[in-house]
Amino acid sequence: MKARIQSLVESALADLRQQGVLPADLQRPVHVERTRDRSHGDFATNIVMMLAKPAGLKPRELADKLVQALPQDSAVTKVEIAGPGFINFFQADSFLSDQLGAALADDHLGVTPASPAQTIVVDYSSPNLAKEMHVGHLRSTIIGDAVVRALGFLGHRVIRQNHVGDWGTQFGMLLAYLEEQPDGDASDELADLENFYRAAKQRFDESATFADRARALVVQLQSGDSHCLALWKRFNSISLDHCFAVYERLGVSLTRDDVRGESAYNNELADIVAVLADKGMLTESDGARCVFLDQFRNKQGDPLPVIVQKADGGYLYATTDLAALRYRAGTLAADRILYFVDQRQALHFDQVFSVARQAGFVGEAVDLAHMGFGTMNGPDGKPFKTRSGGTVKLVELLDEAEQKALQLVSAKNPDLSQQELAQIARTVGIASVKYADLSKHRSSDYIFDLERMLSFEGNTAPYLLYAYTRVASVFRKAGLDPQTLDAPLRLQEDQEQALGNHLSQFAETLALVADKGEPHLLCTYLYELAGLFSSFYEHCPILSAQDDDTRDSRLQLAWLTARTLKQGLALLGIETLERM
Length: 580
Description:
There is one protein chain. This protein is an alpha/beta fold. The chain contains 21 helices and 13 strands. The longest helix is centred in the middle third of the chain and has 25 residues, at about 225-250. Among the domains are: about 1-90, Arginyl tRNA synthetase N-terminal domain (Gyrase A, domain 2), CATH 3.30.1360.70; about 170-250, no CATH class; about 265-370, no CATH class. Helix 5 (about 140-155) links the parallel strand 5 and strand 6 (about 155-160). It has helices at about 1-20, 45-55, 60-70, 95-105, 140-155, 170-180, 185-190, 195-205, 210-220, 225-250, 270-280, 315-330, 345-360, 395-410, 420-440, 450-455, 460-480, 495-505, 505-515, 520-540, 550-570; strands spanning about 30-35, 45, 75-80, 85-90, 120-125, 155-160, 280-285, 290-295, 305-310, 335-340, 365-370, 375, 445.
């Protein structure tokens, strides 16, 4: 509806320019927003306030002329001028009912495919294969996954890229240690990657012979030695098994085919440096080869380098990222490339994006965006750690969430079997951790508080999961198949209107999530939807409605609410429950 009103206003403005009321070159973007108080209309625009002064007119005078020039539209019942020149639009009840009816009849809930659809490459998760996934990987993994789900639902061609850390000098140390393990024991050793890494590091620090062997393996690995590559592939395979066990548990959509790690670009790095040299972009600094861009300077005003090759000939993250950008823009033909990486890497990505454009690795038409995020912190406000100060493994965090969820659901449902309780606890525990993260603004830090996450009150996963089961229970109680309902929707009560209006905003919300890369917008929408349904449920009897048509209309409104909650949570990567 916002787009429809925007089109009406733009048509009226074009008419006023043609009449000479507005200068032909006076252009301003038309923004239409939903109003908070429906008694003042459903939508409003402040375009008059932006145009009146440059047009030499009083705001209300211009507003009156614009209203007179608006084309007639059956979706709009009334237009009013408010305050100094705001224009309020009242939506026809029949239009809203038709929208909701169309959503009910559509597998996509009335969400039309994006046009034109884009090819969007999304870089997310990207753990280091030298260690097990820890809490620091959670945000990139689940925020990125929620956004790719929304993009795919909107009809875009989404290419997931899991840029794992599977290359570098530390792998010589790990391969040397793996080489020392008897064949039958290697998998057992690698069952705990953290201990494996520590043991390898200890051997490296204590044994000069081991250290020399590790360095030699790095050189051999980088030169393509078959023995080293075989060890490296074995290590990576077992390491990825750890990652995908976590992905499966989290309900993340990444697959093995999405993995394209740092090693994939190893053979291209020399060419990246050569292209930069041919374009005259390289400067030698203390033996290293760097790109200096005028827009990046330190506090003293000195230019900051983008180092692409060290003095010893080695390459850095920037070099690999440039190769990845060239591949994604060229081979994958991306229209947008999104990076879900810690916001502390903002300068790095600003520099790499600028170098890539200047070098011609990425065209100007390609949208590059670093979707930075804050940190998950402990009660002390510092990055989440174990009591001993170590890194918290992600699997341990999920174990704790499921255990606490089991205690909670067991107390609420003492009559359920242990198998049912375990399944509910798994869903609630994982959903609570994910939703608590996704419901925060992406750029914000937040405190990890499991008790709060598992609460049935407030903007939490249990609250939303319960809201869905509440709707499901209506149909169980009625013994009705919602697919058999076909009565027209009649939104007579204020609570029906409010719920219907919010349901009609689902597509609009998803478009914002896809554009901004901010899943918290969908979380807020779903939380408000659950609250509006609760108010509707309390004030508008469903099964005991005064007549069959009203009952069936309210049942359909409830069914659309359930489907929207289920679909919205699915786009966040969260399962729903029929009972809890």
